[in-house]
Amino acid sequence: MFKRIHHAAIICSDYARSKRFYSEILGLPAIAEHYRAERQSYKLDLQLPDGSQIELFSFPNAPARPSYPEARGLRHLAFAVDDAEACKAYLEQQGIAVEPIRIDEHTGRRFTFFADPDDLPLEVYEG
């Protein structure tokens, strides 16, 4: 029935800043970009190598989402990577603050967290 995650949708506060972060820094190629005048909203579809997507939206005056302490809802978005340490080093070279590498106590895999321009928690996870 359910096969995989097709996409995750993100509403950003500064479309140009988030577009640059996800497409240039994280390297996700654009599939399509549309401006929807009736909603005063951009929608950018970005693709990951496995075919899953991130939809990046801009909406005027979107309310902030509580994040800390952890609120109900989606906790974070995790990206599978081959080498968490190399990914951490790359992100830090781009001026992005990254937490120290941790080890998943159940799988033994390395992971760490960083944030997008709107402080959305993102994770890199080896595997």
Kindly describe this structure.
This protein has 127 residues and is an alpha/beta fold. The protein folds into 2 domains: 1-62, 2,3-Dihydroxybiphenyl 1,2-Dioxygenase, domain 1 (Roll); 74-127, 2,3-Dihydroxybiphenyl 1,2-Dioxygenase, domain 1 (Roll). It contains 2 helices and 8 strands, in the order βαββββαβββ. It has helices at 15-25, 84-93; strands spanning 7-12, 30-36, 41-47, 53-58, 77-81, 102-103, 110-115, 121-126. The strands form 2 sheets. Strands 1-4-3-2 form a 4-stranded mixed β-sheet, covered by helices on one side. A 4-stranded mixed β-sheet has the order 5-8-7-6. A hairpin with a 6-residue loop joins strand 6 (102-103) and strand 7 (110-115). The radius of gyration is 15 Å and the shape is globular.
Name some characteristics of this structure.
127 residues, alpha/beta, 2,3-Dihydroxybiphenyl 1,2-Dioxygenase, domain 1, 2 domains, 4-stranded mixed beta sheet, 2 helices, 8 strands, Glyas_Bleomycin-R_OHBP_Dase, VOC_core, metal-binding
* Class by alpha and beta content: alpha/beta
Shape: globular
As for the number of domains, it is 2
Strand adjacency order, main sheet: 1-4-3-2
Second rung of CATH, namely the architecture of the largest domain: Roll
Number of strands: 8
Poorly predicted spans: none
Can you lay out the helices and strands and say which pair or pack?
Layout: E1 7-12, H1 15-25, E2 30-36, E3 41-47, E4 53-58, E5 77-81, H2 84-93, E6 102-103, E7 110-115, E8 121-126
Parallel strand pairs: 1-4, 5-8
Antiparallel strand pairs: 2-3, 3-4, 6-7, 7-8
